[in-house]
Every structure is written in C-alpha cells, then in structure tokens.
C-alpha cells in the first residue's frame, strides 16, 4: 500500500473523532478483498464500529457473510455510512448508540443484538479514548477515569453480558496496542489500559477454554483512524506513523483481515494470543 501523507489533515476538537471529515479518508477495506463465507450465518457485536479499526472489522465480517451490530458513542453520520456499506455487502447492520462506560448500556446492547439477529457469535471489544500528556503529574483525574472506563472497564462490562450467550466455537477479540509492549511516555494511562487488555485476554482465554470459546487480541501500531486527528495536531499529526520500519501509518484495511482470521475457524487452535500489526516494530510477546 502506498505511503499516504497526512499533511492535509486537520485536528478535530473532540474524541473519538469523525471519519467523514478526515483528509485523506481512511481505507477501510480493499476493493480486491474477496470474501469466502468464512463467517456465513454468524453475528458480530463490535464496539467503536462506526469508524476506524472497528469499521474495518465490521466491513470484513460482512463481506465474509456475518450480520453486524455496531456500538458507537455519538458519531451518527459515520454510523449511518457504515451501516449503508454493510448493507451493500448484502448483510444486516444494527446501530447501537450509547456509552460503553455504562454497564447497563452494555447489557442492553447485547440483548438488542440477540433480539435482532437471534444469537451472538463474535464479540469485538474495540472502543478507546486517549489523552496525551508529557508528564504523569499533568494527567487530569477525569481524563484518567475516562480512559480506564472506556478502554478496559467496558471490555469487562460487554464481555460479562455476552458470555452466557456464547457457545463452543464462538470468539471474543480485544483490541490492545503496541504501546502495551513498548510503553509510551506521552500516553502513560492509555498504554496502561492496553497492557491490562493483554492480561484480560490471556486470563479470560484460560477461563473460557473449557467452554470452547476462544479469546484473542490484536495489537495495532499507528493506524490512521478518527482518533488520531481528534488527539494530535500540527507536527505530531504530520509525522504520525512515519517512524516505523515500513515508513507509513497503517490503514484500517491493514487490520480487518486479522479480525476475520481470529473470528473464523482458521484460528481454531489459537487462544490467549495477540497478533502484532504495527508496521514492522519488533516487540516482545
């Protein structure tokens, strides 16, 4: 994939960000990606599925034959656009607007998904927030709470609500980050939540192995999603993702096939693991 520069991008004023105003627009699925019914008849529930990595997973799942329920915060037009794109894949999409920091909303999202589609097979915990600060003492307590409640509490809430509806062969996929492995001096709280997601994935995989429910994760590097212009500005935005060995930020389309792999039978002998899709940065784990 060509190296797409970010020099035309403008920062946004609120998280998690709006895809439709990004320049250049993210690539969510390659035109030459051919589905082969790997998820035919399945139902997936994805948090943060209106844009970015979550949207890419949703579109790839749909092209593989799954119906998709998308949880989003307040990005109504992005969510409607994603639903239209899923429907163009001849699959159904349920939009679920709400805050994943609210346990009751997470419970309701699972129930509404099951009511709409008759079951649930794939849970993708993906929603995230980040508030960069250069020093630990500059981290505001409200931002710290928002980061932990969005990035890890919600994983517990949604998974807890879903487990009783999952059976052998069903899967849970968590989005962690390269920062969980190498740390980040300006995203200390965010990186901490991503480290917690790795431990959550490993521990839950052991807990659910006897039920045949697999739990894995994806650890993206720098990916061009709405969260980036909603977080950074100026020189940081222009240089985003250019310091990895491959020399470019990743596109959501670089991630979607990994979620398909973890969701389908191709990864049937894999649980408690993390796929590292980060532009060539070599890290442990």
Automatic annotation (TrEMBL):
InterPro entries: NAD(P)-bd_dom_sf, Sc_DH/Rdtase_CS, SDR_fam. The keyword Oxidoreductase applies. It comes from the Bacteria. CDD domains: SDR_c1 (cd05355). Residues 1-10 have a biased composition (Basic and acidic residues). The keyword Oxidoreductase applies. It holds the Pfam family adh_short_C2. Keywords: Oxidoreductase. SUPFAM superfamilies: NAD(P)-binding Rossmann-fold domains. Residues 1-25 are annotated as: Disordered. Coiled coil: none annotated. Belongs to the short-chain dehydrogenases/reductases (SDR) family. This is SDR family oxidoreductase. It comes from Euzebyella saccharophila.
């Amino acid at each position: 994939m060509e190296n797409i520069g970010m020099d035309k991008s403008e920062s946004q004023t609120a998280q998690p960000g709006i895809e439709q105003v990004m320049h250049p627009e993210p690539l969510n699925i390659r035109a030459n990606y051919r589905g082969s019914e790997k998820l035919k008849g399945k139902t997936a529930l994805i948090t943060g599925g209106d844009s970015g990595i979550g949207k890419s997973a949703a579109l790839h799942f749909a092209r593989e034959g799954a119906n998709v329920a998308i949880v989003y915060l307040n990005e109504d037009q992005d969510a409607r656009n994603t639903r239209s794109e899923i429907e163009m894949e001849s699959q159904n999409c349920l939009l679920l607007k709400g805050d994943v920091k609210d346990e009751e909303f997470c419970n309701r999202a699972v129930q509404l998904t099951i009511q709409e589609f008759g079951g649930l097979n794939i849970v993708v915990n993906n929603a995230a927030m980040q508030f960069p600060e250069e020093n630990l003492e500059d981290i505001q307590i409200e931002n710290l709470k928002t980061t932990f409640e969005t990035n890890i509490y919600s994983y517990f809430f949604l998974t807890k609500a879903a487990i009783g509806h999952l059976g052998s062969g069903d899967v849970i996929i968590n989005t962690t980050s390269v920062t969980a492995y190498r740390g980040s001096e300006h995203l200390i709280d965010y990186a901490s939540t991503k480290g917690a997601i790795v431990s959550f994935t490993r521990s839950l995989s052991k807990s659910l192995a006897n039920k045949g429910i697999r739990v894995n994760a994806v650890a993206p590097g720098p990916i061009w999603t709405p969260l980036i212009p909603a977080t950074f500005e100026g020189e940081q935005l222009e240089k985003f993702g250019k310091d990895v060995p491959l020399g470019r930020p990743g596109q959501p389309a670089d991630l979607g096939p990994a979620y398909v792999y973890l969701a389908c039978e191709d990864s049937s002998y894999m649980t408690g693991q993390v796929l590292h899709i980060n532009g060539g940065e070599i890290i442990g784990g």
